[in-house]
């Protein structure tokens, strides 16, 4: 089967990547009890830098296991576009396992790793269902705050089993990523800026695709 560079379904995820784990749950009734102090977790800071540098652009979901996880590949080997030195330096960092009491439930973002608990780099999973066996084993750093309908679309895609992994039959490319502050969400001017930034990224990715796959 011929692989397509762009999947016909385009996915948009609005991810809450907070420096304080409790603030990831905007709907929690306990939010009003939180103080002003925040703790910076290394995992969150690392992911934030990867997104800011555009490291996930042209990367892909290598694993889609319905009811379990959709997993993004490590950017070092998962991208189709070349990385610059700054991107490569951040992508090669390994992160100390920072495990918490937050539960692995649908919508949670959790770092991927090898058997070494301190081996996480840039691969992460979006939980498509509850997975209590992952609790205290994998570092949780965020939660999908908008776009559950997109998770459902991911689960509907055709897959194949390869060893212990359930993988999509077609490449699911992450076209582009960006970050934003929740206080900007109602500001039309800033929304327009973000849309233009995303469109510009898409043009550059298409240029790279045409260069590599004429």
Written description of the protein model:
With 214 residues, the chain is of the alpha+beta class. It is 26% helix and 18% strand. Strands 1-6-4-5-3-2-9 form a seven-stranded antiparallel beta sheet, covered by helices on one side. Strands 7-8 form a two-stranded antiparallel ribbon. β2 and β3 (69-72) form a beta hairpin. It starts with 13 loop residues before the first strand and ends with a helix.
Overall shape: it is globular
Supply the number of helical segments: 5
Q: Largest beta sheet, briefly?
A: 7 strands, antiparallel
* Helical content (DSSP H or I, runs of 4+): 25-40%
Quick rundown:
By secondary structure, the protein is α+β, with helices and mostly antiparallel strands. The chain is built from five helices and nine strands; from the N terminus they run βαββααβββαβββα.
Primary descriptors:
single chain, 214 residues, alpha+beta, seven-stranded antiparallel beta sheet, two-stranded antiparallel sheet, 5 helices, globular, disordered N terminus
Question: Topology, pairings included?
Answer:
Elements: E1 14-16, H1 42-52, E2 60-65, E3 69-72, H2 75-78, H3 85-91, E4 108-111, E5 124-127, E6 140-146, H4 148-156, E7 159-162, E8 165-168, E9 172-173, H5 188-212
Antiparallel strand pairs: 1-6, 2-3, 2-9, 3-5, 4-5, 4-6, 7-8
């Amino acid at each position: 089967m011929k692989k397509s560079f762009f999947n016909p379904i385009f996915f948009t995820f609005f991810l809450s990547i907070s420096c304080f784990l409790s603030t990831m749950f905007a709907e929690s009734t306990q939010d009003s009890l939180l103080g002003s102090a925040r703790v910076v977790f290394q995992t969150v800071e690392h992911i934030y830098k990867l997104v800011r540098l555009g490291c996930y652009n042209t990367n892909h979901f290598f694993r889609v296991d319905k009811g379990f996880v959709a997993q993004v590949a490590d950017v070092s080997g998962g991208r189709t576009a070349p990385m610059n030195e700054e991107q490569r330096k951040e992508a090669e960092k390994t992160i100390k396992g920072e495990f918490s009491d937050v539960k692995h439930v649908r919508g949670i973002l959790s770092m991927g790793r090898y058997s070494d608990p301190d081996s996480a780099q840039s691969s992460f999973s979006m939980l498509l269902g509850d997975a209590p066996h992952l609790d205290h084993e994998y570092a949780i750093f965020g939660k999908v705050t908008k776009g559950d309908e997109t998770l459902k679309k991911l689960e509907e895609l055709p897959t194949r089993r390869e060893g212990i992994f359930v993988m999509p039959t077609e490449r699911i490319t992450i076209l582009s990523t960006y970050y934003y502050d929740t206080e900007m969400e109602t500001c039309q001017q800033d929304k327009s800026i973000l849309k233009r930034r995303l469109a510009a990224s898409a043009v550059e990715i298409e240029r790279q695709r045409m260069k590599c796959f004429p």
